[in-house]
Amino acid sequence: MRKHLLLALMIVVTLLTAAGFLFSLYAFRAQEEAMDSMMRSYVVDLAENFAGGAAMGRGMPQRHRPMGQMRFRMLSTDASLRNGGAGGVLLIGQDGRVAAASPGAEKLLFLRTRAEFSDEPEKVRGDDGNDYYVAKRGLEDGSYILAAVSRTVLIAPLAGIWRTWILTAMATSAAIFLGMILLWRYLAVPLRRIAERIRGMRWGKDHPPALYSGPLYELESLSAVIGTLAEEAFAKEELKKRYVTDLVQAEENTRRHLARELHDGPLQSSVAAIKRIQLAKEALPPQAGELRRHLDTAEDVVQTAAREIRDYCDELSPSWIRLGLASAMQENADRLSRAYEGLVIDVDVDEDLDVLSEESSLALVRIFQEAVSNSARHGGASSVRAALKKEGDAVHFTIEDDGGGFDAGPASGTDFELLRTTGHRGLANMNERVRLLGGTMKLESSPGQGCRIDIVFPLAREESTAAPA
Questions:
Q1: At what angle do helices 358-377 and 325-339 cross, to 10 degrees?
Q2: CB 398 within 8 A of CB 387
Q3: Same domain as 130, residue 219
Q4: How many percent of the chain have pLDDT more than 90?
Q5: Residues 155 and 267 reside in one and the same domain
Q6: For the chain, how far is it from start to end, CA to CA, in angstroms?
Q7: What is the pLDDT, as a whole number, of residue 397?
Q8: What is the pLDDT of residues 329-339, one digit of tens each?
Q9: How many domains does the chain divide into?
Q10: Residue 459 and residue 468 in contact, taking contact as beta carbons nearer than 8 Å
Q11: 131 φ, ψ to 5°?
Q12: pLDDT at site 4
């Protein structure tokens, strides 16, 4: 509901504005019709009243007829209503001469040829451009009454007030309607586009796109502020990525250094000790059986220590990484199965992924080692399944176990700082390596339901190009 609240409010205001505009238009037309009806009724009343007055004075000489009966009272006291400008009444004899008239009505004589005898008044346009309502009534002696009123002059002030009010209301409604259109076009739509672009941004991973370019300074300022925040997030993420890269590089360098020290020191000493024990055994007389057994035991102990040192060297500075990702994953799966007795590890790797660089392959193997270690030591899992699949220009890495699981709510795999502070250092290390690959890690787990890790990262351009079709 909140998502469409602004749109709903604008629709309501627009509908109310449109209703106001239509009502004003209806009122304007109704007012025009009411004025028209009033003028028609008025001119008919004038004609009938004048005809009655003429009948009363028909027995008197013309000069003795009461002129009060020949005149009519208009609706205004304006001077134009007393000099015939607003209309008048004429009594025209059989010979076509004016027998009696209201003041100034003689100027209306041109209407007698434009109007017909009728019970209903006619609307006639005069030479002066005014609209007249005309009524012609015949009398028994052959004369007739011509009554006419000017709509333009008579009700011009009243009609002007009504027209101004109605047109103002219509103009206001139209302005509000236009304002709603402009508000939607230049404010609501850009805000929606800004929100969509912000939702589509990968904060800290991409440079911010241009959010807005338009006439509104406020939106441009908002876009600039958001762009600044996005740039700062990107710079912070790049700094963090370099920091993590340095940490991982330092870790791998330390591993290689330890592997060399172990290989050149304890391992060589162990090999030399084994050789000396073997030489000592050859020098023993046949009757020294007890001493030979002690030397055999010592040789086995030193052989075991030498194998462990070799394993440590291979773990710290692996030679298997040069065999390709699929072989490296399988080699480590076998090693981990031997290390964690009873743990079944199933690995499925696309052969297309052997094009990955040694750095990427090593990162994936380290993630795999950490995940298996967590499953065995913390989850008590009996089986682990790992799959590495190439999907388009991306790699999907899934690791799933049947262990005891845990509440993954506070460790969603998206914030390695939070993971580190909540005690999941192994998960934090995995996520750091995933971020170095430019990917994302999603963690799903709940008590008693095992654990699943989904990792997606893009193939580098050269790796994607080198992959077989």
A1: 20
A2: yes
A3: no
A4: 7
A5: no
A6: 49
A7: 94
A8: 888 898 888 88
A9: 3
A10: no
A11: -95, 130
A12: 66
Q: Are 405 and 370 part of one and the same domain? A: yes
Residues 159-178 as b or e (16 or more Cβ within 10 Å = b): eeebeeebeebbeebeebbe
Residue appearing with tokens 């300022």: 221
Both tokens of residue 353? 């992924």
CA distance 92 to 142: 9
Tens digit of each residue's pLDDT (9 = 90 or more) over 253-307: 787 788 778 877 887 888 888 888 888 888 888 777 788 888 888 888 888 888 8
Residue 401 confidence (pLDDT):
93
How much is the pLDDT for 145? 85
How far apart, in whole angstroms, are the C-alpha atoms of residue 359 and residue 322? 10
From the list 442, 441, 443, 436, the residue with the least C-alpha distance to 460 is 436
Distance CA 85, CA 108 (A): 9
State the CATH number of the domain containing residue 351: 3.30.565.10
Does 167 map to a domain? no
39: pLDDT confidence band, cut at 50, 70 and 90? confident
d(CA 98, CA 110): 12
252 domain residue, yes or no: yes
Q: Which of 282, 317, 352 is the last residue of a domain?
A: 317
Q: How many CA atoms lie within 13 A of 359 on its CB side?
A: 12
Domain boundary, last residue among 105, 130, 162: 162
SS3 54: helix
Which tokens go with 325? 């990702």
Domain that holds residue 431: 321-469
Which two tokens mark 454?
């989904």
- The tokens describing 309, both together, are 């040192």
On the question of pLDDT at 320 being above 60, the answer is yes
State the amino acid at position 299 in one-letter form: E
Compute φ and ψ for 308, nearest 5 degrees: -65, -40
Q: Residue 361 in contact with residue 330, Cβ under 8 Å?
A: no
Report d(CA 146, CA 127) in Å as an integer.
17
Distance CA(154)–CA(133), nearest Å, equals: 11
| Claim: this prediction has a pTM higher than 0.85 | no
